[in-house]
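Hi support team,

I'm opening this ticket because the web form for multi-chain structure prediction keeps timing out on my end. I have pasted the exact lines I submitted so you can reproduce it. The total is 376 residues across two entries, so I didn't expect it to be a heavy job. Is there a limit I'm missing, or should I split the entries? Thanks in advance, R.K.
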Amino acid sequence: MKLNRVMLAGLTAALFGTAVLQAAGADQWIHIKVDSKVGDEERVRVNVPLSFAEKILPAIQADCLHNGKVRIEGNMDSVDLHALMDAIRSTGDSEFVTVESKHEHVRVAKQGAYMLIKVRDEDSWSKKADKAETVDVKVPLSVVEALLSGGKHELDLAAAVRALRAQGDTELVTVNDGEETVHIWVDSQNTSE
Amino acid sequence: MATNAESIRNVAIFAGAAPRSVAPPDVARAQVGSRAQLALFWKTTLLVVASLAALGALVVASTGVIWVSIQEKQPGGTHLRLAVPAILVPLGLRFVPRHVWREQAPQVQPWMPVVKAAADELRKCPDGTFVEVRSRSEYVNIAKHGGEMVVDVDDGGDAVHFSFPIYLLGSVAHQIEADGSKR
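Hello R.K., no limit was hit. The queue was backed up. Here is the completed structure from your submission:
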């Protein structure tokens, strides 16, 4: 009887170990899902393996994108993004920006290892559909750090993708304006359904 | 003279005026020998042709095929189906005229590293649908199945299916780069 229990425990451990190893080895995919309720009721699904994005980005040499880095246009001399990031990292959970108006609520906060941006715009509610416009952005701090790890005037997209890949399953963006919904997330599935 | 006699005998045999058995044994043996040689020749030719066909099929099977299907959906519309051995594409590129290269190179060359990187990485990527756009009137699907990229487009009027081996992307990009630098 004792032998049976030991064998069962061993088998369970082996199965669990295999599952963990498989999950670790699985490729992460970034998914973009757009559903429109107006016009042709378009549905868009984009699924890209992050490993693919990571390799492709450095190869693109376009107008403002070089070696996986985007050059920020405009005058950025007055803003030190790295210092800003250091400050955010060193503070505990807190709300950085809160805007409250009659129809609009904006909240930018740090919560755990994530930067959160929440927007509720009830102005669009009266004009458009049956719901207020909502925007939820949840970005891991490691990804923001990686994004700012390049030069002063650039965003390192390739590094951000690498960080995102290491992050595991993550909800990134959800936008709903009543007529259209946009959902961006990362997981190890190769479909967005 | 002997040849004339042989001819007369053959004609007589053919006409049934002379029995076959009267043909000299060496002539009959020669005729049998030449027929055997002819049969051997045809057998060898057939074997060579079959081997070449099998080799060709093997090369096409291992290098892949580009499938193109264009279907006009209106009544009586044409349905074009095309299967091109992928190996012909790099060969075909060698015959692109120089002036075409000169005109297109500046636009195409900067994107070749991207195409090469995409081809390398696509091969390693797991299968899946990369892009799907669906509306009441349109459908677009770009997916990877095995070693192939498959593109399906349906705009209500026409349905287009296009698939090609992924390695072809890299191979064509390498060739365009190499040829562009030469020309």
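A quick check on our side: Residues 28-187 of chain A form one domain. Let us know if the file doesn't open in your viewer.
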